[in-house]
Predict the structure.
Amino acid sequence: MKLKSKLILTFLFIALIPTLTVGFIASYTASSTIEAEVFSKLIAVRDTKKTQIENYFAEREGDIEVLSRTIQKTLDFNSPDALTRTAHDNHAYFEQFIKVYGYYDFFLIDNNGEIFYTVTKEADYQTNSLTGRYNNSGLSTLFKQVTKDKSFGMSDFSRYAPSNNEPAAFIALPLTNSEGVSVVVALQLSIEKINELMQQRAGMGETGESYLIGSDLLMRSDSFLDPNGHSVAASFAGNVRDNGVDTEAAKLGVKGKSDNKVINDYNGNPVLSAFTPVDIHGMRWVVISEIDVAEAFSPIYALYWNIFIIVVISVVGIVTVALVTSASILKPLGGEPNEMQFIS
């Protein structure tokens, strides 16, 4: 090998080994730090959403308790006719109540199962929860549960025929006044309020989102990134494969696990995912917060590119220095050592 080549390789070896070593250590440390930081933010968002959802449903229980006390004071329980009449007399109050507190509908059901008052007057109005055509609905099932348990209850989302077959969830509370007359007060929840909580995305970038799923792997809040294919309505109208969340995070969350992992999301894209179960009145939902790997690791990719540019510049600089140095060494000698033997 010529002396010039040896000098160039020696310079490259001496200079590049430390450069590459430092670059590798820096990139590994930075990538680990960035990944830990992103997961830390996702976990914080996940835990905040869980607390918000738990507080939301605690407030809903408080709402229906206050409403029940108001009903006992304002309605006439002396006869079924008087009870129905005074309920309708207070329609403006009930209508304003569900508007202010974000409910879809309000129901009064007598102890025989008759729905004798609702705000929206949909098809369930004046039907019987025990014997009517909707006696297998979520509201009817909840009515049977709370009258049996004599305590507050909630039904999970399911398709509800009177509301255009859209998914609906209900809360209910039985009450008995001082004269012993019993009625069940029920409220139909609005998905918009849950979406407001879950779609607050401060600091989540372009691809970050948080959403809820049920134990059936169907949506309990609308996806921000795919509001058409992965909304609550689409999920219950479709199937888990196309409109639900059949991912590792979802399955582990349903089993009661809290963790954070790099997984493929419901669209098959690699994401950083933080998940935890949230148990609400006998129902298990899962809070999932995610962000695309490509966005989360973009600073790492930028670092890799910068290191590559530095290495290229270093190689060019080292080769240039090696060429100049080898020329300064070989010029006094008259050329390469194996060529000097021909000099006379």
Strands lie at 103-110, 115-118, 153-160, 166-176, 182-189, 209-214, 259-264, 270-280, 283-292. DSSP finds eleven helices and nine strands in the chain.
